[in-house]
User: What shape does this take?
Amino acid sequence: MKGPTLNFRRHPSKDNGIKSVEILAKPETPPPKFIEESNMEFNILASEKLPNYAKLDLFHRAVYPFMLLAQCFAVMPLLGIRESNPRRVRFAYKSVPMFVTVIFMTATSTLFLGMFTRLVNIGITAKNFVGLVFFGCVLTAYVVFIRLANKWPAVIRYWTKTEMVFTKPPYELPKKNLSRRVQLAALAIIGLSLGEHALYQVSAILSYKRRLNICTNITEVASFDNYIQRNYDYVFEILPYSPVLAALMLLINLACTFVWNYMDLFIMMISKGLSYRFEQITARIRKLEHEEVCESVFIQIREHYVKLCELLEFVDSAMSSLILLSCVNNLYFVCYQLLNVFNKLRWPINYVYFWYSLLYLIGRTAFVFLTAADINEESRRGLGVLRRVSSRSWCVEVERLIFQMTTQTVALSGKKFYFLTRRLLFGMAGTIVTYELVLLQFDEPNRRKGLQPLCA
Amino acid sequence: MKGPTLNFRRHPSKDNGIKSVEILAKPETPPPKFIEESNMEFNILASEKLPNYAKLDLFHRAVYPFMLLAQCFAVMPLLGIRESNPRRVRFAYKSVPMFVTVIFMTATSTLFLGMFTRLVNIGITAKNFVGLVFFGCVLTAYVVFIRLANKWPAVIRYWTKTEMVFTKPPYELPKKNLSRRVQLAALAIIGLSLGEHALYQVSAILSYKRRLNICTNITEVASFDNYIQRNYDYVFEILPYSPVLAALMLLINLACTFVWNYMDLFIMMISKGLSYRFEQITARIRKLEHEEVCESVFIQIREHYVKLCELLEFVDSAMSSLILLSCVNNLYFVCYQLLNVFNKLRWPINYVYFWYSLLYLIGRTAFVFLTAADINEESRRGLGVLRRVSSRSWCVEVERLIFQMTTQTVALSGKKFYFLTRRLLFGMAGTIVTYELVLLQFDEPNRRKGLQPLCA
Amino acid sequence: MKGPTLNFRRHPSKDNGIKSVEILAKPETPPPKFIEESNMEFNILASEKLPNYAKLDLFHRAVYPFMLLAQCFAVMPLLGIRESNPRRVRFAYKSVPMFVTVIFMTATSTLFLGMFTRLVNIGITAKNFVGLVFFGCVLTAYVVFIRLANKWPAVIRYWTKTEMVFTKPPYELPKKNLSRRVQLAALAIIGLSLGEHALYQVSAILSYKRRLNICTNITEVASFDNYIQRNYDYVFEILPYSPVLAALMLLINLACTFVWNYMDLFIMMISKGLSYRFEQITARIRKLEHEEVCESVFIQIREHYVKLCELLEFVDSAMSSLILLSCVNNLYFVCYQLLNVFNKLRWPINYVYFWYSLLYLIGRTAFVFLTAADINEESRRGLGVLRRVSSRSWCVEVERLIFQMTTQTVALSGKKFYFLTRRLLFGMAGTIVTYELVLLQFDEPNRRKGLQPLCA
Amino acid sequence: MKGPTLNFRRHPSKDNGIKSVEILAKPETPPPKFIEESNMEFNILASEKLPNYAKLDLFHRAVYPFMLLAQCFAVMPLLGIRESNPRRVRFAYKSVPMFVTVIFMTATSTLFLGMFTRLVNIGITAKNFVGLVFFGCVLTAYVVFIRLANKWPAVIRYWTKTEMVFTKPPYELPKKNLSRRVQLAALAIIGLSLGEHALYQVSAILSYKRRLNICTNITEVASFDNYIQRNYDYVFEILPYSPVLAALMLLINLACTFVWNYMDLFIMMISKGLSYRFEQITARIRKLEHEEVCESVFIQIREHYVKLCELLEFVDSAMSSLILLSCVNNLYFVCYQLLNVFNKLRWPINYVYFWYSLLYLIGRTAFVFLTAADINEESRRGLGVLRRVSSRSWCVEVERLIFQMTTQTVALSGKKFYFLTRRLLFGMAGTIVTYELVLLQFDEPNRRKGLQPLCA
Assistant: This one.
């Protein structure tokens, strides 16, 4: 799943404040009118008494360290991501981060092409197809992230404006605040994926060394150059070998692995950010229990709930391509790795890497699904209390709120083809098992052949 | 997927004004009473001050050029399709277009029979079955289109009457008007399908020539006659060969390809026409935001919404057979072509044709599904605004509208067996993958055999 | 799928008036209280001015000829089925029809046992399993019909009481009355199934004769006795052969075929009976359009609608076992026959029988599903009109009716595991295709073997 | 599916009253506030006039004998389970039952390890995997039950508090009271599973004896020691053999079988307990028919209904892991056993055991699903009567109750991935058939090999 690096130095994304092209991405379902209105209100806020964004429990603040990290790998080329004021986040086609991204994409394309020519030569099969899918996914992810970056300034402003109300009473801070939650998820994913990448390299190097030790008929000498040329031969079939190229290729390979993991991480962070707010609404509803509540309170709660749903819609329309890509990617790799469960491997380290990688993959897929499904779960958790509202407090607003919570599918979606809910995960698990059973049968002849001779 | 032509000249469908048999097709779900009423109202309009239909943004005006084109291939034999007044559209069993259609159908039947006798001789397999399915689908499509033509005058009148209200304020024209939209979709499909057909011929001719060049043991001389006899041998097993017959066969083959594509195109145009109106309702609802709206406005909006839903029901009951046929047809061909992905082909041009054809097929299938699913999406897009209606403007009519939008599945259907929504497409994709995996396994022995000797 | 007859003479079911055991079957979901109440009301009606049941358009009148016919084959052993007054219908364990049923069941069990011992000897495979399934289904059907007969008196009384209101104004008779509809469906099924059975015998006899003509090494003489012994060998392995036994076996075989078809026919008749009443409600609602309707009318309509839904529930709880059995049976046989599509057969008459039988089977399955799904379709057809009720006529009762029509799944069910709707049929078709593809692959080795030698 | 015993004596769980660690398990969806409130009310009740729990028809009283039995096998290590007052039920990590549980778990782990090392040596296949799954499931079940025991004191108190209201008028005792129902289900499962275990031992012993009788080349002497060493060889590869160990291993094996069955039994008992209360609500609603009911009654009914739903939620959040484990376990074993249906076995007793075991497994799976689905069925059974509420009695509370019953999925769930309803069972059956068909094809080569030589 990995490939080498090209000659390339990433320019730091700091010098991003030069051009401030105002990009108001046209959302696919444009929230009618209030964008302008909100901006206006937003501006007034900004001029009159600018809120101290840095101290507030805002999504932008929670998420910006990891978006900065992503910029190191040329993902989501935005300007002003480090500013505490979300209004300063901008996107420009003619900017340094964008330039870096293009360079990374070119490098990845080279790996993709190298892989492709190699496969055409030896014949594409369902088995060796996987490398192409990996680089193809990463390339698509780069494009999707650029389009998302284009929409991001509008998204993050709208988001900040919507969540502003949740930072003040009567809403309370949950025990674990948003930044902590996002951090925990992100660090877990980053740590585990670093582990996976390291283990991959260790496994490759050890296999390489053992082979040279055992096979006396091979006259190669173990060296970094030889190792790279053997393991990334598909690149050096279309490029001349040089140590610098090799190092760059390793870098790009790392970047690809990062992007491949960051897709899921980004969806997770978004999901955490949204379900956090629904949780606050639920908490507020819970506090109303056993109280006489006047209609105006319910009017306000419903208003906030509707606004949150609209934010979700808006975010969803910007994120849908990424979600679709991530799901297809995860399903493909889970199926592919499960298929290899019964394969024989040569060295123990290969088994260690394989099982780590498989479990990590399944865990990550389940985690991203469950985190996204949490939005759906959280959005209807207030129902229980609302159903117990006594007949004295009962009013049209409660009825409307219950009706909306009951009938609306509040969840992130893959281009509205499916909604990320817990039931979907169940259905998908069933489908994956079916695929796996058929594929295992399909793959049996290969499996029976066993390992190929080591020293050929 | 193609076949030859019979001796036949298409009579132009211009002389269609002679007999004016009044056909009031009995819809399967007859909209009670108001058909007559609507006609009456319609008549009054027609006599008192006839609206200048040609200038209005009506569905009939948007769609008639392509229905005219279809008549060139004997699809939907209607009279008066060129008139700007939809009332003039008529259907008659004893008419010139109908006569032309019968001739085309006879010719197609001949191709079908030729294919059938051939297959019975060499043994029907899942693989060579495809030609039979192609001609069978086209024949069925002709019959379905005749039945649809029979209902069309009633449909287009009802449609025009319903959409009249949307051509006046308070409804506004969306940026891209209906004609533009229909044209774009239609030209794309027609252009791409022409490309597919041309590429098919080029691929067949080049393969034919190369074979003659290489195989020295074959004494045939490359000529049009020989080419036709080789490639359409199944026809000339039941008919004597003559150059005129050959030319006709090519024409009929073209007609078949047209019909095969027109099914999907027609569904697309219908879908565009319907979702356009729902879009106008959504736009009108959006404009009401942040305003104090009195109940009468909501009464009117709901009325128009209900009428549109009824129009959809009515159109759906007329179109359902076509939708069912198109879906089955598309699913079959997508499965069949996907199955051939791993097959080896002899010449590069064959690969070019195969991949163009496969991508075109998948694209067209996805396009027709998504266009139809748009009706469903568009019909509930007003919900967001309606949910934000303040408690002052809230009234029973808004409640009814929300309830209807939430609970009713507003979508075209395949005989009510399934509704064309985005979720369906997702489910179908999952099912196709299952089928494909099983079929690939099934087909493996054939695939392993590889290419048969060229010069046998 | 067929077997022979045992020595047995059916006693006519006329002498059924002797014992009148009052059986008030306890329904699984007992309609609370009103059973007694209804009976009381029913009794009053019966004593004061007995309605002329014979002249009314009642379900019992429509269905009794076919239930009488079924009694000839010992299905549903009821007494008093010929009486026009549904109150006279009784069930008794100690009665002549019940005795006849037991004899038929014993005979069928013998066939089942013969088949079973034969299969155990030659080894049960997925292919030869079918005979066992056939007789097993028929036996189960007999049991299920006895249990249904036990509940039938309660069902038909409740049904009659519920439908009484639909025989008077304001409800109108639809164009085709209930008896006509039931008759059409029943005659079609009976005619086609007779054709199937006859064709089966013709096919078997012709195959038998041809074989004797061609195979000179076989010294058998073509005779009725020899024919029976050859074709029903499994019976005469456990019973001694005698011509009387042979004739009886043919009779029992005919009875089994009848029962096998009658399951579906019965479900169809029930469905027609129920959807007919929903159609009348829809018609009544339609007539209200464009009128100012006072609430009391809607109260009445809703009341009748609810009662019809309860009747459906009650009938469903009695019928569910039969529906489950019929569905499983149909799915199994459709899968089995589809699997044989690619098999080679010896004589043309075998092909004729096979294709007739396959198409009949699929047609019957689709027909019974669609007829049952019609209840569901018909039950919500009034929604369109109700949605257009103007805001002046709008009242709580209309709201309740719309809510109920929208949210309740009004349909026959298989023990509540699934509801017979059009969408189910679509899902099932997809599943059958999956099964078929896997099974075809499974069966390929057998198929490749081809026909076995004729004269072995 | 079985394994041997370790040297171990179970300490009776009687001495459980020493430490009374107050554990208020934090429920995953904490019912807000009222836990304390309920406890308070509970305490007042307890101090002022303690209800005679022993005489009431409470869930705790119905279920405690079987929980005591489970403690004999170290399942759910609780203290004070025998007390009639549910408040006395406690859980402590440092307690005798917990200690016993740990010992059992250690022993089971040994069996698991033995099996695992054996399989690694001979190579893991899909076929011999089953033993590992069995012991793995049992181990997981022990852990799940410990976590459940931790939550149980809170659950049973909340449960008792909620059901208190149903023990008094206006609620009536259904004919069969809760204890009877739970007893019937439990005794059936326990009896049948004992039969299964006994039959397993008989089958193993007879096979062992026959083999020694027939195979003259084997010099072993039939003895208990030899039998154990042959049949549980995987244990004595990692442990030295001794008769005491053998006896203990048989005991642990029995315990594993018990746990394996108790999972399902426990879910069934919970389901019976919940559906019983919904049944009482339904009965109460039914009694209101044909009466003029004032709103306060509906307020009360709705309140009880909502409380019951909350209890279900609470129980579900505690039970979900167990339900998930039980479902996965059942699906796996049903698939595995179905796969063996066409396998040849050596002795008749093997067939007897196999078929008994298969039918028992399917029966138990269906039974646990149907019992759980009953909650769902029962929770909406009141709808019929509520729909008939006349327009005079109609009030907002009825509307709310109908709305809730219609839209809420009241059912136990597997971590919200799926809800245990009757429709789920139908979908699962379809999926199992698909799996089975693919697996059968997969397994064919093994099946064709037939039996291995007896005396090898």
